[in-house]
Structure formats: structure tokens, C-alpha cells
User: Fold this.
Amino acid sequence: MHKTQFSPIGFVAGLVVCLMAAPGFAGDLGAQVSGKGRIGAPTTESRSSGCPQNADGTFCWMSPDIGVAWASGYTGSGVSVTVVDDFAGGIEDFGDLGHGPKWRQRGKWIAQAARMVAPGAKTVELDYFTPVPLTLEDRLNVINLSYTLEQPVSGYPLEQSIVDAARAGAAVFTKAAGNESVAVGTPTERYIDFLALELTGTQSTIFVGALEHNGTPENKAKLASYSNYAGSDSEVQNNFLTVGLESDKIGLSGTSVAAPIVAGYAAIVGSKFTSATPTQITNQLLDTARTDTLVNYNPEIYGRGEASLSRALAPASIR
Assistant:
């Protein structure tokens, strides 16, 4: 089977070779395997630039909104975050999310990012070569997909069950947009992401693109040069979010790393609105995205805008 992984840019050199043989990530952490794979490829650097921890417990690459959410008691508790990725292969690379430079499997980096954003959530690691359907827990489920599937979904029980669950709104799905600098779902010379095509138009999927940094009205951000963008398809635009990725600080880049950040946001929002459905959590993140923090906002590039955890958590209740 052929799955391709998206890799963090800081990992790209080493990961790109390995990830090209496994499912792909939608980020710079790129890899591909027979059937499943590439959504991005990491760039490898000789060392990480270091990522100091802030006084509120957050790390250098995180939006300040995360610390505010934690201080308010919203850490993802009561929510299950499942990271579907490569946890069995020997793909390792170098990065630093705040606990010091390490070599890890690609899937371990993705899971760590989600776990660090939403430390109160239950994090489940699911290898994407598992030939069985997805199992959901009896709670709000968030499923992160930082890879591509380069063959029709119907041939893969896990991915078919993922698409079926997304169509039913059974979980929040965060899907790395990809790292080919094209519109989501666009065929390239190397592959077609059948998983992205099948998830387009489903009610609880969020496609995630990467910004060069977390934006503010005073220091607007633009889409990272490698990131796929929303494109002209309104169904993609309506379910496309971006999030900042401080690649120069963590030695990682790619939409495969951006996606688990939004997965963590979904878990945090779910820990406040405990009776909300997956579709309501998805829509809350999409509907509260910011456009004033982006350079020359255009829905064909940024979709709904930059994810804003503070705005998503602001109301007393959601519908």
C-alpha cells in the first residue's frame, strides 16, 4: 500500500526519504508508503534552534491563546485525540518542541504536538497500516490525519471507515492540507490525495494549512511557501483553517505538524462545550477564525482564516 506522510520542515532532509515510503503527512513532515503517504515533507536541519518554555507553561511555538485556555481550566479533558500515522516504521528525525532536541518516529512528533497543546486529553496512537476500521470512544473524538492516501479509499478499511465517520459527523477530523503549494485535492505529477478528495464536503473535517508564524493584527502572517491552500472549491474553502508554525524555533515544519495543533484546539474547545457534537466543535473553530491577522486575506488561499482558540472559547454556549 502507498501512504505518504507530510513532515515538519525542520525534519525534511531525513524524513523525506523515509516518509516517501510510508503514508504521507499534510505537513512538511513528508513520507510515503505503498498506498498511503505524502502530505508534506520535513526539511532536515543539523540542529534545532531551541524552544524555551514560557512562564504560563506554554512553549515558544504556541499561540498565547493556549496559555489563556489552560489558565481557565480548558486542557482537553474528557476528549480523545487519535493520531493516525506511522508508529511502526524506523523513520526518525531531529526536532525540538520544547523538551530538548530529539530523534523520533514521524508519528511520535505528530502525537507529541497534539498532546502538548491539549495535555488533558487522552491521546491514542494508531498506526495507519492497521487493516481494520477506526474505533471511536464513548466521548468526543478528534482524529488527526497528517498523511495522504495515493490510492482509492475503498481499498483500505481504515481510511474508508474514516471517510464514513466524517460523513456522519461522528468525530472531528483534522487533515493536513499538504505541502505541494497547490490547492487541496489537486493532482500533482507525483500523486493524488484520494483521502483529501473523499473528505471534501464532509461535515466534520477541517483541512489545515500552515502559516509562517502565529499572526496578529500588528504582525500579520502569510501562508508558508510549501503549504497547500484552499483553492476555488467552496467546499474546501468552508472547511479550511490555517495555524502558525514557528519552524525556525522547533526545527520542524509542514502541514503535518500544523494539523495536530488544530486537533489540540478542537480537544480544548470540546473540554469546555462538553455536550457539543463533533460537527458543532468543527463549526465553532471554523466560524471563529480570524482574517485580520493574515497578509492580504483571500478565501482561496486561507479558507476561513487563522484558527483562533480564544474566539472559539469565548461564548458561554454554542449551537
